[in-house]
Amino acid sequence: MNDNQRLNLKEEYKKREIQELLDQLDRDLVGLVPVKTRIKEISALLLVHRLRKALGLTSANPGMHMSFTGSPGTGKTTFAKLIAENLNLDFKRIQFTSDMLPSDINGFTKYINNQPHLQKGPVFSNMILADELNRGNPKCQSAFMECMEEKSVTIDGTTHKLPHLFFVIATQNPSDQIGTYPLPESQLDRFMISFSMNPLSSKHEKDILMNQSKVSNDKLDKINLEELMKKVSLVQYKDLVVEYIQSLKKQASEIKFDVILSTRTLLFTVQISKAYAFLQNKDYVTFDEVQKTFPYILRHRIKNFDSNMGIVNYIQKEVIEKVALPR
Questions:
Q1: Which residues contact 234 (CB under 8 A, 6 or more apart)?
Q2: Contact status, residue 162 vs residue 126, Cβ threshold 8 Å
Q3: What are the φ/ψ torsions at residue 27 (nearest 5 degrees)?
Q4: 327: CB partners within 8 A, 6+ apart
Q5: Can you tell me the distance from the alpha carbon of 282 to that of 57, in angstroms, rounded to the nearest whole number?
Q6: How far apart are CA 130 and CA 179, in angstroms?
Q7: Cβ pair 40, 215 in contact under 8 A
Q8: How far apart are CA 155 and CA 101, in angstroms?
């Protein structure tokens, strides 16, 4: 075997390895665990198509808020920033701490020459990265909840509207860690979807350490958000799909753990299923899209989960598999 043949063979093996990673990322599309590792393993340019799918999920609806949960250092903030940087929107980051005040989020009124002037806080932006959201105290959570639901803030008794396109990507630390506050149910219910960033395996840690200087600085193509939202809104769904979603909600209410279920949950399921169908190049929603997305809509709504089984696997076994498809 000559040098050219060896080189070609080496390149072929590399292409296969990259394709295997991309195929795995497609399988992990909804979970995206751990995305940080994937970015370290392959050039960002090679991930344009796959990451675009994930970005599309986050931008399919202007009221969609996402939550990432995991221990420090598992890539929550890295991935959230990657999403924000490629949506071509105004972006602000808020680091939540136990001693912050609502005015650190919303802003405040200041007086210049005895005239009141509004000093806008970082929440006046299209996309907010709420880093370590559950480290914020209850008073700040209350102020932030108004932003998430009403898209407005109240400062000194005056209500101010936020931008029409307003998203929150929140990262949270595990609730058993020191310095965290449990989020109220009403705030948890406002997050459309949530993911868990699992700790890295020894192999993935080694890959990051070995390749940290080889990461590409190439940017992903910007996404036309308005155009994407219009296309997603055209995706159709039938009565049978709605009936199936209602059946899933009923089954979820019968599991042994307390679950936060509301009409908002059903609306979110329809919206995210439409987005996922669009990403699969479909113009209609099938049961398959509902089955693949519902566990990630429900996972943060299950309280005090203590099963040895992973929460997504638990939802799959106790909810998805126990509901028959309508005919």
A1: 283
A2: no
A3: -70, -30
A4: none
A5: 14
A6: 16
A7: yes
A8: 12
Three-class DSSP category at 180: coil
Strands 152-155 and 107-112: unpaired
* Residue 25 clears pLDDT 60, i.e. is over it: no
Tokens found for residue 265: 């949950």
- What's the CA gap between 74 and 196, in Å, rounded? 9
Query: Using CB atoms within 10 A of its CB, is residue 32 exposed (0-12), middle (13-18) or buried (19+)?
Result: buried
**Per-residue pLDDT, 1:** 62
Are 238 and 286 in contact by the 8 Å Cβ rule? The answer is: no
pLDDT for the residue numbered 67: 85
What's the whole-number mean pLDDT along residues 199-227?
A: 63
DSSP 8-state secondary structure symbol assigned to residue 302: B
How far from 180 is each of 132, 135, 199, 311, 315, CA to CA, in Å?
A: 9, 4, 19, 21, 26
What is the model's pLDDT at position 21? 45
Which residues have C-beta within 8 Å of that of residue 215, sequence separation ≥ 6?
39, 40, 43, 44
**Where in the chain does DSSP place strands (E)?**
65-69, 91-95, 107-112, 115-120, 127-131, 152-155, 158-161, 167-172, 193-196
- CA 148, 153, 159, 164: dihedral to nearest 10 degrees? -50
Instruction: Please report the DSSP string for 228-267 in residue order.
Output: HHHHHHT-B--HHHHHHHHHHHHHHTTSSS-B---HHHHH
Q: How many CB atoms lie within 10 A of CB 203?
A: 9
Q: Is the peptide bond before 199 cis (omega within 30 degrees of 0)?
A: no
Residue 20 predicted with pLDDT over 60 = no
Give the pair of three-digit tokens for residue 208.
């990051």
Q: Give 195 or 105, the one with higher predicted confidence.
A: 105
